[in-house]
Backbone:
């Protein structure tokens, strides 16, 4: 299975990089996982609704350029579906069973994802109704993907 984590914005915090790299190392036993970092669109603090859509649109174009036609896309969004770790594991297992070997998880920038990216998504995922920094979501996501593989293999992992 080939998993891409397509994300807007650079990761600067050393502690988050270390955590993500640890889970990526652990995941290498189960799947090929790559993190694709895309630049965020520079924008002033106080944006109008139109300017926000323009920023998300430009970031969305960059995201979509990294997704091939045969990729199953899961967009992370607050309004996405909330799932348990077991449900995510089951989703990953079903995708593998039905020959979906390319999966992309998409994490947008600070304004979220464009409507074009949401339309391209085959599924949505929300970890909480709360808002988290997208850098932290990377760490949470790779941990949950790792947990999913452990669950599917019947391997022990703390609850």
Residues:
């Amino acid at each position: 299975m080939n998993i891409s984590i397509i994300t807007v914005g650079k990761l600067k915090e050393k502690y988050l990089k270390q955590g993500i790299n640890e889970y990526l190392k652990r995941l290498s036993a189960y799947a090929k996982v790559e993190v694709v970092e895309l630049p965020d669109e520079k924008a002033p603090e106080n944006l109008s609704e139109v300017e926000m859509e323009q920023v998300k649109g430009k970031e969305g174009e960059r995201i979509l350029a990294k997704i091939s036609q045969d990729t199953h896309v899961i967009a992370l969004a607050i309004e996405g579906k909330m799932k348990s770790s077991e449900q995510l594991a089951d989703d990953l297992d079903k995708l593998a069973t039905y020959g979906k070997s390319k999966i992309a998880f998409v994490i947008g920038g600070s304004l979220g994802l464009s409507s074009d990216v949401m339309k391209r998504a085959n599924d949505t995922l929300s970890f909480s109704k709360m808002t988290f920094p997208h850098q932290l979501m990377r760490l949470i996501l790779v941990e949950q993907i790792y947990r999913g593989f452990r669950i599917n293999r019947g391997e022990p992992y703390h609850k």
User: Anything to note?
Assistant: Residues 1 and 87 are 18 Å apart (CA to CA). The chain has a mean pLDDT of 94.
